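Record 1 of the preview.
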Amino acid sequence: MTSSSTTLPAATRRPALRRGVAVALVAGVLGAVVFGTRGRAAVRPRTSDAEMLDRAMRGLTAVIVYDIFSPPQASRAYAYASVAAYEALRPGHPEYRSLAGQLNGLDTMPRPVAGVTYSFPLAGVHAFLTVGRQLTFSRARMDSVRAASDREYRDSGMPSDVYARSVAYGDTIAARVLAWAGKDRYLETRGAPKFTVNNTPGRWVPTPPAYMDAIEPNWPKLRPFVLDSASEFRPAAPITYDTAKASAYMQQVREVYDVGRGLTPEQKTLTAFWDCNPYVMHVQGHSMFATKKITPGGHWMEIARTASRRSNADVMKTADAYVRTAVTLADAFIANWDEKFRSNMVRPETVIDQYVDPSWEPFLQTPPFPEYTSGHSVVSTAAAAVLTDEFGPKFAFVDSAEVSYGLGVRQFASFDAAAREAAISR
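->
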């Protein structure tokens, strides 16, 4: 394994922001202001360092799947871990701008000691996994991933003092990021009231087969990363609930019913590919069991990894792609959940069962939260906008994010094409 070590001069030049990006996508397409930084000077690719960060990302995803994180919870873990990696790597790449002052509530980050040598790739990966460990439940699993990563750097021939100093710097960055994360109101939402189910017509109610409580009804209370509030880009109100057969609402319900009954093999394939339901419940007689899967955010973080590898991105550009994608996904879920629990729209499955055909079942299991707006449509379009800005509008790729879950691969001519397919899959 090769790894870059950097000796800092007594004074480093001020980071330069190459470009600032504002991406606004409204309604079922999230609006989010995001940032972008890329070095003005060419940086020699350090493939193995980028691969180490990739392994860390995949290790975090594996634990998120194991812990059955909801899509919003997963997005939070990806975002804070990615910020930690970016900030720990950045001192070795002064052409990149700190996220302090760009992200809500993030103050000046700790600087390394001048005049001594660091391995910032080691610091970045270690910081990523340290934050990921604190934001997941299966900490022993995260400890194993982090220990293996640290050991590979240590055994690469790195001087022991450089190794210890770099790990310590990664821990310092991780501690600062975790302190910042602790003020995002997540802990307060753990004790907030649950969603109350009632019989108001058109209001969301739990759906079969598990009839689970609504997931994260208080998520919009979290501090966004870049948005000024959860409702900054509030979408248009949904179509008015009206069960009269000729109503616009029932016409849409009927469309869902008719399409669901006549799905083609290709439609079934792409729909299953974009399911991304982290907890699918199966019922066989009197027994129930669940299948664990990647979340929508995890799917798009894997697409970011694929794009980084296909473009031969070095570790800093990889960290840049990760943090921009992760922060955008996190804000997308906050904004999306804000509308979901404002409009509280009933799911089509419930309406079809009551007014059209009680024997009908959707091809995909209905997730446990309100209908409008479509989460996949929001987060996929937002992530695709950022990745397009990062890698270009005609970046073709093979999406293998679902191979581990037995769903094969799909090819896309662009990130936008992937987002459109994710949206229509719903």
